[in-house]
Amino acid sequence: MLCCMPGVAVVPALLVVWSSAAFIISYVIAVLAGHVEPLVPYISDTGTKPPESGIFGFMINISALLGVITMYIRYLLIEKQNESSHFITSSCNMFSLCIGLMGCTGMGIVATFQELAVPSVHDIGALVAFGSGVVYITLQSIISYKSCPQWNTYFVCHMRMAISVISCIAFIPMIVFASKISMTKIDWAPGEK
């Protein structure tokens, strides 16, 4: 089975490295081109104008694909472990995979529809990506606890749950503040509201 093959663990590592590179490269290009201020711009702002928009879109779409592969490997791994332990229902594992795939689809939408070109589609994609991501990681944390101690240590379970809680806490202000502003441009002149 794919999930039991040596070397499969490189896929999640590649996902992290590639996604980080996507954000860093588009940020550096956007700052050097003068398209964003260097101090903490929105991730989407660094991928709005050419040439960084093309690089951002391409690299984030690859990240979404790597996310799909990573989540499918995790799904297969849990299915294989569940054959001997029966710690969750197969439908729960499938539901978690579907939620994760929705998040990857949201990432693809964010990458394809730039923030200022089609803002409503971009915002819906971001909401789907981040919302599904929070639900996915929470479900994976619960699955980890159910498979403990045979397939996970309690330390790993606690770390996953801590990341889930932080993600949930961060998601709430993101929704609140995003709903209070409607961004229609990046460049602002002094005195504008």
Automatic annotation (TrEMBL):
Q: How does it sit in the membrane?
A: Multi-pass membrane protein
Which keywords belong to this entry? Membrane, Transmembrane, Transmembrane helix
Q: Name one GO biological process term.
A: regulation of autophagy
Q: Which GO terms describe its cellular component?
A: endomembrane system; lysosome
Q: Name the principal localization, coarsely classed.
A: membrane
Q: Which residues cross the membrane?
A: 7-33, 53-73, 94-113, 125-145, 157-178
Keyword Transmembrane helix assigned: yes
Listed InterPro entries: CWH43_N, DRAM/TMEM150_Autophagy_Mod
| Record's subcellular location | Endomembrane system
Residue span(s) of domain CWH43-like N-terminal: 8-185
PANTHER family membership: DNA DAMAGE-REGULATED AUTOPHAGY MODULATOR PROTEIN 1, FASTING-INDUCIBLE INTEGRAL MEMBRANE PROTEIN TM6P1-RELATED
Q: Which family does it belong to?
A: Belongs to the DRAM/TMEM150 family.
Protein name per UniProt: DRAM1 protein
As recorded in Swiss-Prot or TrEMBL, the protein's gene is named: Dram1
